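Side project, low priority. Logging it here so it doesn't get lost.
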Amino acid sequence: MIRGFASGVLALGLWAGAARAQVPAPPTLAPLPAVAPAPASPRRLDDFLRVARQNSPLLRETANQVSQNSIDSLVRARQNGVQVGGIGSALYYPSITNSQGENVLGYDQAISNGGNYAAIAQATKPILNRFQLQNDYQILASQGQVLRNTGRLSALDLRRSITDQFINAYAAETQLAFSRSLLGQLRQQDAQLRQLVNGGIFKQTQYLSFYLSVRTQEVTVEQNQLAYRRELGTLRALAGVADTALISLEAPTPPTHRPLAGLLAPSQRQYTLDSLRLLLDRRAIDAYYRPKLSAVLDAGLQSSSYLPIALAHSVGFGGGFQLAVPIFDGHQRQLQYQRIELSEQSRRGYRQFLTVQRRQQYEQLESLIRASDALLGRIREQVRVADALVGAARQQLATGDVAILDYLNLVTSYRTLQFSLTQAETDRLRSRFALDYLAEY
């Protein structure tokens, strides 16, 4: 592009110093690069969303956490069943006595029995713990609901980021398509203008202004192409698409207008689940301070002597109950209740703020969409008028009835209006999708 611009400057110097009647042809302009669609690459918004959901490690992790929660429920059920464990010990307590038989070194035989040799299997089973068990199951079920709602929030955030970037990429492609179309029209007029200059209808300097405008438009096309490639690459990176081909995107379909989602929205539902969690935490505190009763049964071998005859006569079994009753812990129960109450106050504050915020955002987006519709109507009318003026001036330019500079001014205004139209359509489309996010259940 620098080489082409240098050629233009050189041509300007040559034409200014020479008195030739014929205008030399400008350097050959490079053809426009073609945009070929790649069948294997996503082109529609729905395809990008589908691929992004499949490739998202965050969504896979959330799904794995939901499966882990189901396993935790099975583990809790097993913990409430019979637990069997083995106990083995072989302890020897030596003692030293004097000549009178008095103990000089060693534990009292009445306490140590000289040793302890045991091999016992023990089985325990919690009983009368239905309240504790039900609360634990409800806590695990609540955790599963929280994980699933977190997955919905993550999927909604992924959808929002992919959609926003798709809109950016599509807007860049639309601007690129318009720049290419305008450049094609300017190139078609280049040969006609050179003939008019050679015929003496226009001056050489006027043609050079048009020539420089064509070169400037070429730079604009390359800049727009780089911008589209950058936005498309960002979109693919977000979706996890391993492709670098420059493809054409399909126009996104605006979502239908839906009412604001209330307490069933994922962002609102998380506070409902938090309320349930705090209730279960309070019940867990109550369960902790209830008496705990377990049935115990053991069988095996236990003896104070390691001699085989003593071990043979020390096999037996036993059973009974174990009871644990909390008596006093410094009023920790009331302190934990106070912590839960403070968490509940925070939860209510967040939920109230979010409810007002979502309503305000929804009404603001509706207002923006109405304003965008009105603005688009005016811009489209101006673009229609500008397109008609440019077309008429193009025809008059071929006969020399319009000055080249006047025509270039019309082209510049038409290009500015087209950019404003693309920007307004992009903003309106983004507002429509943002409104749809707030309506998601």
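Brief comment: The radius of gyration is 41 Å.
Revisit when time allows.
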